[in-house]
Specification:
7-stranded mixed sheet, binds pyridoxal-5'-phosphate, about 15% strand, Aspartate Aminotransferase, domain 2, alpha/beta, Aspartate Aminotransferase, domain 1, 4-stranded antiparallel sheet, 13 strands
Length: about 375
C-alpha cells in the first residue's frame, strides 16, 4: 500500500518534534531547558477560560455556522477595524482552527497545482509544506542578516515568474522577529500589484512588538492591495491560547464565500465553546496581553545581553515575537549538529535553522521563565566556548 504523493513529500514539523523530545526528557526527570517551544509559557487568562466554561455549562455544545458564530466574527471585524484600520465585514471572516489552519485554507483556496509561491527565508517552517500540499512549488528567496532578514522589492521582482501566484509575508516574523515598516510594505505591495501577485499576510505575532516597533497590516495600505491580500491571524500567541486552536482568515469579498464552502466540507466549525473564549479575548480586558508582553520584553533584553557576551555567535536584534535567531556560522557546525550536540551535552533544546531555510542559524525561543532563560543561555555560552 502507498500513501498519496501529496503527503509523501511532506516533512514533519521539526519544531514540534524538538519540543516533544524536550518535554519527554523533562518527563524522565532530566533537567532540560526548552528553548524550542513556539508557544507562550503563560496560562490562558481567567476571563477567557471563564467564558468558555460558561458556554459549556450553558450547553453551548452543538455545531455552529461553519465559518464561526456571528458574535465572534463581529468581534474580529471590529478588532480589525479599530486596531488595524481594516474594513472586513463579519461575512468576510472565517474562524479557523488556529492560524496554521488559516494559512492552509487560504493557500488551498487560491493556489493551483503548478503555481509558484514566493517565501522569504528564514521562514516559518509550515509555509513550504502547505504550498506543496496544494500541489504548488515554494520559491524560496534568501534574505540577509544585513537587511534584517527582509525581502527587498528588487528580490521580490526578480523571484517572479509567469507561474507566481502568491507571496507569503510574516511580520512580525518567526523565526527572525523582523517587522516590516509601512514604507517597506508599501514598496512590496507596489510590486505585487504591478505583477498581479496575491499576498498572504500572517500577522499572528502583531501584538508582540518591542522598542516602539509598530505593526502595520499590509491590506490597510489601499483598496487595491486590500483586494489582493488575505490576512490571517489568531489567538494562540497574544492570549496564550495555543491549545484552543483559534484563528481566522480575513478575506476580500471575492474569496470569502469559497473559503466558507471549503471549511464547510472539511472541518466545519471550530469548537463551539472555544469560540466563546475567543470572543472574551477580543472583547474583554487587554491588560493580560500587556502583562505578557512586558514579561517577554524583560526576557528578550536579558537574552540579548547574555548572548552578546558569547564568542563566535551573533544575532539581529529581533523587534517582535519571542524568538532570537542566532547566527552560529562562526562555530563551524551545521545547525542540526549544533542543536543535537547542545541537547546532548548541555540539555538545552533549540530549533536548527535548517528547518527555517537557513543552516547558519538556530532559533532560541524565550517563551520560558527568566530563571530558565538565564540558566539556558549560560549553558549555551559554556557549550560554544568548549567548541
Ligand atoms: C508565523 C506563524 N504563523 C502561524 C502559526 C500558527 O499558530 P496557531 O497556533 O494559531 O495555529 C505559528 C505558530 O508557531 C507561527 O509561528
Amino acid at each position: 500500500m502507498k500513501t498519496a504523493t501529496r503527503v509523501q513529500q511532506l516533512s514533519p514539523s521539526l519544531s514540534l518534534s524538538i519540543d516533544s523530545k524536550a518535554k519527554a526528557m523533562k518527563a524522565e526527570g532530566i533537567d532540560v531547558i526548552n528553548f524550542g517551544a513556539g508557544e507562550p509559557d503563560f496560562d490562558t487568562p481567567e476571563h477567557i477560560k471563564a467564558s468558555a466554561m460558561g458556554a459549556l455549562d450553558a450547553g453551548f455544545t452543538k455545531y455552529t455556522p461553519s465559518s464561526g458564530i456571528p458574535e465572534l466574527r463581529a468581534a474580529i471585524s471590529e478588532k480589525l477595524k479599530t486596531e488595524n484600520g481594516l474594513d472586513y465585514k463579519p461575512s468576510q471572516i472565517i474562524v479557523t482552527a488556529g492560524c496554521k489552519h488559516a494559512c492552509h485554507e487560504a493557500i488551498m483556496a487560491v493556489v493551483n497545482p503548478g503555481d509558484e509561491v514566493i517565501i522569504p527565508a528564514p521562514y516559518w517552517l509550515s509555509y513550504p509544506e502547505m504550498v506543496k500540499l496544494a500541489g504548488a512549488e515554494p520559491y524560496i528567496v534568501q534574505t540577509t542578516a544585513e537587511n534584517n532578514y527582509k525581502i527587498t522589492p528588487d528580490q521580490f521582482r526578480e523571484a517572479i515568474s509567469p507561474s507566481t501566484k502568491m507571496i507569503i509575508l510574516n511580520s512580525p516574523g518567526n523565526p527572525t522577529g523582523t517587522i516590516y515598516t509601512e514604507n517597506e510594505l508599501a514598496a512590496l505591495a507596489e510590486v505585487a500589484l504591478e505583477e498581479e501577485i496575491l499576498i498572504l499576510s500572517d500577522e499572528i505575532y502583531e501584538k508582540l512588538t518591542y522598542d516602539g516597533a509598530k505593526h502595520v497590516s499590509i491590506a490597510s495600505l489601499g483598496k487595491s492591495v486590500y483586494e489582493s491580500t488575505i490576512t490571517v491571524n489568531g489567538f494562540s500567541k497574544p492570549y496564550a491560547m495555543t491549545g484552543w486552536r483559534m484563528g481566522y482568515i480575513a478575506a476580500p469579498e471575492w474569496l470569502a464565500k469559497s473559503l466558507d464552502s471549503l471549511q464547510s466540507h472539511t472541518t466545519s466549525n471550530v469548537t463551539s465553546f472555544a469560540q466563546k473564549g475567543a470572543v472574551a479575548a477580543y472583547k474583554g480586558p487587554q491588560e493580560c496581553v500587556a502583562d505578557m508582553l512586558k514579561e517577554f520584553g524583560r526576557r528578550r533584553k536579558r537574552v540579548m545581553e547574555m548572548l552578546k557576551e558569547i564568542p563566535k555567535i551573533s544575532f539581529v536584534v529581533p523587534q517582535g515575537a519571542f524568538y532570537v535567531l542566532i547566527n552560529i556560522a562562526g562555530t563551524g557546525l551545521t545547525s542540526a549538529d549544533f542543536c543535537e550536540k547542545l541537547l546532548e551535552k548541555k540539555k538545552v533544546a533549540m530549533v536548527p535553522g535548517i528547518a527555517f531555510g537557513d543552516d547558519a542559524t538556530v532559533r532560541l525561543s524565550y517563551a520560558t521563565s527568566m530563571e530558565n532563560v538565564e540558566k539556558g543561555v549560560e549553558r549555551i555560552s559554556e557549550f560554544v566556548r568548549s567548541l
